[in-house]
Amino acid sequence: MNVLLAETPPKPLPFPRTSASVGAELRSLHAAGELGLPLPGGERTAARWAALAAFGRRDLALARLAEGHADAVAILAEAGRSPASGALYGVWAAKSGGTGAVLEDGALTGTVRFCSGLSLLERALVAAGDRLVEVDLADPRVRRHPDAWQAVGMDASDSGDVVFDRVPGALVGPPGWYVARPGFARGGAGVAAVWLGGAAGVFDGVLAYLRDRGTADEHQLAHVGAMHTALSCAEAVLAGAATDDVDALVAGTCRAAVERTAVEVLERALKVTGPTPACRDRRFAQRVADLPVYVRQHHAERDLAALGRTVLGAA
Questions:
Q1: Closest CA to 288 of 202, 166, 230, 206
Q2: Mean pLDDT across 97-101
Q3: In sequence order, what are the residues at sequence separation of 6 or more whose Cβ sits closer than 8 angstroms to the Cβ of residue 134?
Q4: Where's the Acyl-CoA dehydrogenase/oxidase C-terminal domain (predicted)?
Q5: CATH code of the domain made up of 89-176
Q6: Contact present, 203 and 227 (Cβ < 8 Å)
Q7: How much is the pTM?
Q8: Pick the CATH number of 1-87+177-315 from 1.10.10, 1.10.3470, 2.30.30, 1.20.140
């Protein structure tokens, strides 16, 4: 693992972690210019994905917010627009359970779930039907509901529901542009780079546990070898994709490969360690709780069926 994942893990966040501490670290990174990732495309894609993987390996709640900001900046650049100076951005596009924003007379109405950074961010790109709208989150008609987020995993990502009550905004791109643009597939694969970093973070915890114990039996070593192989293979898929034009087939393959790896790493990790670090090491326990929540942005068999449909159509 040395293309997108550095040999030395990044310095983790201090624990216990909170939404406030994650938000403070995000603002610090933004002020230092460390959220200014290379825009995707050509040789810059690999560097961008390596940075996203490093965020994920450091902390997935932080990575979720960093990736959302970086994705919004890339979307605006693709539309020929610049982000508001100094603002932290997110992309809120979920249509879970029949919810979602709609555009009525130029204003946003409706409820959007899974909005990360809802109390921290200054601006968001919100999907409304076939349009994308940039919104100033200081508008009092933006109502936040952080209590909707009850998960232990990703608990510090400042997530929840947002209700828009006729909130005006600026249209970004023509109708249908958001999902039709080339950057949509690149962004989806970029999220997979964050998942890869999160899986590597769990693996880091497993290795630290074994090194602290000073011993490992053959069964534990077999699981370590399998996890290393899975991570290396997923990294190779992403690294190879970063050199090509990323279309729906490539992005779907990247996301499926990393999702499978994350599931395998999670399953094998606790077989190696048993319950001890999951019960006595808060950082390890948090990593194990965060990853399955985040990686479910991949919709399992539904996304695999869509990938299979694409493969069949391309054959």
A1: 202
A2: 94
A3: 76, 81, 123, 124, 125, 126, 169, 170, 171, 172
A4: 176-293
A5: 2.40.110.10
A6: yes
A7: 0.97
A8: 1.20.140
